[in-house]
Structures are given as structure tokens and as C-alpha cells.
Design goal:
Order of helices and strands: HHEEEEEEEHH
GO molecular function, one term: metal ion binding
Protein name: Peptide deformylase
Bound molecules: zinc ion
Enzyme class: hydrolase
Strand content: 15-25%
Helix content: 25-40%
InterPro entries: Peptide_deformylase, Peptide_deformylase_sf
Mean pLDDT: 94
EC number: 3.5.1.88
CATH class: Alpha Beta
Number of strands: 7
Length: about 180
């Protein structure tokens, strides 16, 4: 079972690497790892288990966050329409996205970041993601709102990007748009 001891924190170079594609069909080892990541996220949202094992509640975790530089992540999150997205995904890819952007009110947090970093993190409002589930099924997911933001946060981890990188980018963009 994964605990916070397995979660690497900012400063670890693995969080800055471009993760490698997972060979499909996934090996037993990769599937077991992804299942353990999904279990971790589910457990972290259970108040009793979270307290017992000192888990920080999270809605997603990407393989680089446990020191494995492979393109896979797990999410367990309920959208605004009360639909639960609970899955592990291999080699996820954004195949299209809205022009419109959004952000999470109150900013984003990350299991690999032990400090509060305020600021809006710009994200696409809607994305279409292709990938292969833990069960080996090829899927195309059309996502919006919170779930779309969570997927983009986890996808960033596979490309060595931390959420706060985008806060800076946002500030720079605003600066450019303002009259000098
Ligand atoms: Zn994160």
C-alpha cells in the first residue's frame, strides 16, 4: 500500500522529467503500480484511512509523484453533476481542447508540494483525452469543469510541469496584455 512516504516532493528531479510511454498492453507490474496509485487516492479521501495512515487527501496522482517516470496517472474525483470519475489511465493524451480557459477558485494544490501556493492556474475549460484504462480499454473522454482541471494537472506531471509554473506564465501573460 502506498503512503505519503512514497510520494516524492518538489525538488526531486523526477518531477521535472518527461515521462516515458507505457508499453501496452501494460505489464502486470505497471498495472499493479497504477492500481496502487488509484487505491492511494481513494484511501486518501476516506477520513478514517487518511487519519490512520496519515494520507493527505488528494483527487489524483501521477506516476512521477511516486518516483516512476512513466505516462500513467490515477484520479478519483466527482464532477459538478455528481458523476464519479475513478480510473487509472495509461498514456493519456489531450487530442483537442477548448479555446476558452478556466481556473479553480482558490488555486490548486499538489501532493508533491507541502506549501500553499496561491494564484490562478489557467486551464482549458474542456478537453478531449484519449488513453488506455487500467482494464486495458482504449477510451476517449470528453471532460469539463473540475475533472478536466484534474486531468490537466496530472497530465502536466507527465511532462515535468508543476501547477505553479503556470501561475507565473499567467502573470507574464497578463503583464504583456497590460499597457506598458
Ligand atoms: Zn500534483
Amino acid at each position: 500500500m502506498l503512503t505519503m512516504k512514497d510520494v516524492v516532493r518538489e525538488g526531486d528531479p523526477v518531477l521535472r522529467k518527461i515521462a516515458e510511454e507505457v508499453q501496452l498492453p501494460a505489464s502486470d507490474e505497471d498495472r499493479q503500480t497504477l492500481q496502487a496509485m488509484l487505491d492511494f487516492v481513494i484511501n486518501s479521501q476516506d477520513p478514517e484511512l487518511a487519519e490512520k495512515f496519515e494520507l493527505r487527501p488528494g483527487v489524483g496522482i501521477a506516476a512521477p509523484q511516486i518516483g516512476i517516470s512513466k505516462r500513467m496517472f490515477a484520479v478519483h474525483v466527482t464532477d459538478e453533476q455528481d458523476q464519479l470519475y475513478s480510473l487509472g489511465i495509461f498514456n493519456p493524451k489531450i487530442v483537442s481542447h477548448s479555446v476558452e480557459e478556466t481556473h479553480l477558485e482558490g488555486g490548486e494544490g499538489c501532493l508533491s508540494v507541502d506549501r500553499d501556493i496561491p494564484g490562478n492556474v489557467p486551464r482549458y475549460s474542456r478537453i478531449t483525452v484519449k488513453g488506455t484504462t487500467l482494464e486495458g480499454e482504449e477510451v476517449t473522454l470528453r471532460l469539463r469543469g473540475l475533472v478536466s482541471i484534474v486531468f490537466q494537472h496530472e497530465l502536466d506531471h507527465l511532462n515535468g510541469i508543476m501547477f505553479y509554473d503556470r501561475i507565473e506564465a499567467f502573470k507574464d501573460k497578463l503583464k504583456k496584455e497590460l499597457p506598458q
